[in-house]
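Hi everyone,

Forwarding the result from last night's run.
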Amino acid sequence: MRPHILDRLVAWTFLRLFALFLIAAPLLFVVGDWTEHLDNYIDRGLTGGEIVKAYLYELPLFIQWSFPIAGLVAIVFTVHNMTNHREVVAAKAGGISFHRLIWPAFFTGIVLTGVALALGDWVPKAYHRAGQILRAEDLGRTWRNNFVYVSEDGVTWQVTRLTAETGKMSGIVLERPGTDGEPTLNVMARTATWDSIDGWTFANGYAREIFPDSVLHEYTFGKMRMAGLTERPEELLEKPRKPEEMTYEEIDRQAKVLERTGGNAKQLLVKQKQKLAIPVATLVVMLFGAPLATTTRRGGTAYGIGISLGTTMLYMLLFKIAGALGQAGAMSPWAAAWVPNILFFTCGVVLMQRVRT
């Protein structure tokens, strides 16, 4: 058989098995989540249509979680079936090594890893929409009264009322300390509104500039915008959104807010690093599972399922343990997210080197 024909065969077999499991796996997540939260849905008076619609919005997240498992199952059954049918032996007899034989599957896995990473850009919005439908949001997450907030550059906010959903504040007192010859600025405004383009616009207020030489400028304004105020309404809330509802950059900003206000941001930072580690695990577990499936022992489907389940359980165990250690501060968030991938990648390289080519 010509190499390019064999490449298409291997890639198509892998991709077909991957797609089959990727369709089935999210349904298992849906059933598990529905069983766990059914009582809450009944208490909230949700209709069947609302629940179905919410789970449709959650599907991108479940699909992203399924990528590593689907990649593992697909590579294990692809290699094991080729081994049982003596296709691996035939390829070696034709001068094609095992590594070269399965390269098309790994190339496909690299592409799929990129797809899983790309899903991270719109999973948070879809998941947030699902939370709104299921009415799972705490009211304290959409408004806040009588609070003080200190931004990263030292600006102090005193706010009487914030409604993050509409991007409006009332009763604002703001102080920006002077630096490098710039004046200290005090602003009092009746209201303020947020716009994604212009930022915060203060209305019906009074401003005072105090220069280093004690010169004082005072003025009233109908509307005023201030450069450098990048805090979004949701960042000023007492309770942050769930990590699944935030992008990588949004988690980074929220973690900095927590650290500035004396909170513990380790859990957020671990979740942030896992947003990249989980999609990359698609390729890592493939590298680990492929050499394990080269055995000629009998077992067929049962053997393939056994390898897949065993590898998945081991990876999830390491993932949970490392995540817990990271959140407790026993290891860095980066290490907590990537240690399982590093260990599986190292073992996979060793196993691949031991496979007879």
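The mean pLDDT is 84.

Cheers,
N.
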